[in-house]
Prior knowledge:
This protein has a single domain, classed as Roll (Nuclear Transport Factor 2, Chain: A), CATH 3.10.450. It is of the alpha+beta class. The longest helix is centred in the first third of the chain and has 47 residues. 45% of the residues lie in helices and 37% in strands. β1 and β2 form a beta hairpin. It has a six-stranded mixed sheet. The termini are far apart. It contains four helices and six strands.
Amino acid sequence: MNRAVIIVLLALATAVVALLAADAAVAGQDGANVVTLEKIYDQQDQALANMDAEKFLSFLDPDGYAFIDEKGKRQSYAEYRDGLQQAMPSRRNIDPSTKVKDVQSQDGKLVAYIEQASHFEVKDEKQGWVPFNETSTAEETWVSRNGEWKLALTKTLRSRLTVDEKWLKTQQEISDGWYNAIHSKINSCNYGIAGCR
């Protein structure tokens, strides 16, 4: 083989190895970012489970956080904080779980794609404590502030909130029992002129 061809092939092989090494380094960094955010999300979930709004809010960037729901409605940090603090007293038995699906590093920020599932109860004046299940997917952007990652943007992609099916079934059984008791009382009267005996 010609000496020039060998030099070109060696240069090409070196470039390929360098690119593969760079890709591996990026993949390793992305893996480290996933682990970092998984730890933060675990701490956020624990703060919610403990009903600690202040701890949960400490993960957000107070100077620039924004929440965008699946319909595109935007809330500032202050609006989100006020809503969370107002909602907390009427909640109990919060059991959240956040799964990091992917993390991308973009311009010094981390963009995480997450899936969340949560079970919680809401106080209702008539029904008492009503259990709900919520699932959502979101894209969240994290920025570094004084060496800590702070959540700057939550963009909800999909969200579903449902009343717990077991609770609904129990309520239906209670309602059916009440209806059957009333119905049997009415039927025992035979709608007669003399009324019930």
